[in-house]
Amino acid sequence: MSEDSSEIKTVTRKQLRGLGLSLYHAAAITKVLKPFSQKSSTYFYSIPEVVGSLRQYLQRPRIKPATRETLKAALDILLDLIGNIVPVAFGTSTDPELSRLTRELMSTISKTNSSLAALKVDAENKATARTKRETT
Fold it and tell me: For residue 69, what is the enclosing H or E element?
């Protein structure tokens, strides 16, 4: 997943599985999306598009409660990855220094949240791989 906020961040089906989604749900959520890029046989999907598809999928009434919780947990992690922060009009303050510091703070918080979410995804993927190795 990319680090620069100006780049479009991407995710693969395998990474979605690492977030706890089943193979079926990872495929169902990305099936309607156009891949952002492809490397070998791996398709990369834009995280904002995956979030939209996941939200749409959650609207289905017949999803079991445990599955719904898993999907919501994955949605929360993906939202952290894209830094889902509502823009605020910092220029309305009377103190320009306060506005500048607030912008810097919000940018730093967003980068930190994104980094923590990426680390969480990596840790979950490694734990899943380790568990699979131990069971085989």
Answer: helix 65-82
